[in-house]
Here is the input.
Amino acid sequence: MNVALKYVLEAVHMKKIILISAFFQIVIGFAGYVSADEAIGRINALKGFAFARQPDAPGQRNLKVGSPVFVNDTIESSKGSRLQVIFRDGSTIRLGENSELVINQYAFNPELKEANGASFRITRGIIRVITDKITKLNPERFRVLTNYGTIGIRGCDLMFDVRPRDEKVIVVQLHHADSVVVEMNLPATPGSPVNKERAVIRRGGKVIKMSLANGMETVNAVMKELEELDNSTKPEDSEEESSDEPEESGSVQSGVREYESIRSVGERAVKSVQQVDEERVARVEAVADSADLLGTNVDQPSKSADKEPMAASERGRGQDSMEITSSPDSQESDMSLPVVGTRISSTIASGSDWSWGAWEQEIMDLDDDGEMVTYFDRGTFVTGNTITGQKFRDIRDGGIIYNLSGTGQAGAAITAKQRSEFMTGGVELNVLVGGGVTPTWNGDFDVAGGESQLQFSSSGSIMGNGRLNGSLDTYSLNAFGEIKGPPVAQVINGNLVGPGTGDTPVTGAVGQFNFNHNDGTKVDGAFGADLR
Here is the structure.
């Protein structure tokens, strides 16, 4: 059984190596058709008619498959047309009909992390953005601007539906532990001060709606809507994409197709190992015996959230709970590790109108020496009767100032180099809201467990939608006996909780925090406290 399982895991890792090779072919393919100093990508699929123009150049360039694209290009598709652009780092952008994309900035240098960055503006239409190497090298410098907001992207697959009076940002999936930050920067009414609303999304299957009339709202995605939007940007039936001439080895087209083929086989191999959560030894042995995982087609089990029920406490019951609606097609494109045991979640702390807990799942992988190892993947979740939207604004703008404070419980899962453990401890929170003052909050956190300890303080504002957004004031992490410096990426947010009305509209606060370090160390935490 161990031999069979090792072959399974080695096959998965070999697929990863081949995927890297395929992407390298994609990047090399660019050198054959453009100067590296000028062209940043090319059209690799087109149905109908599209053109590009430069701000200081007369006329426009009619696009076809193979046409290069450049910084400062405005790319437009006509009615009934669709196209796909692939960039030098492997990122792709698909445009549906009557869509417009402006490339404000693009720089890709795999040898120099700080030199990477991209900025695009979407002025109208339906557009899908799938990021690649730039967000891995420099995740802080990839953003998309729309008419209503700014979207910071840290490795993900997004769709945009931009219309004159409203727009949607659809988070199809996130890669690894990354996030999407959406900031709306429009006044509530013409001539009034700008009301900046902000949402940090760490789960796929979410839709952020923005409009002048309703501000910002985050809801669960509906799969039918996702499919319709996705189909409206697919140019796969393009006549220009096919050719009687054989494709050159290493070309962008052949590289993409090879990558998709390899990824499909690799995903089938991994997913076949994930089919059953019980009797793990028998499960892996049966899969290894019943299929040639190195090349045979294996039926893919569904990973749809509605077919794998989570505990009710994990799925959330509040207004702003983190329930996900997804399907096999909306899973992460990177192959996940073979799962051994069932994901187990439990509530750890609770108070008035809030609770949070932790989950864990056993994972198998090969270490650097090719030996099979088993470890736990851990994380946190929060639920609560959150005060959002108009309920929060009524409290903020009301005549009573609430200067609240309280202590509660906090916890965090820390993962580093195939090791993980859970830390617990306390949190002290202070909140100021109401009476027309600027809403603010701050907190001190101290959690420890096993060989690790985390202490940090955070403060920030409370946005117009009721979301607590924070940044680090101090930070100290001892991870498995090793002192770490400040994180390279951080997310700290939460919500006030309570009835939202009455003499005591705010009863507490609940939230989450995530910290990522350069060496791959990750912290995923949650907190909650009653406030008075």
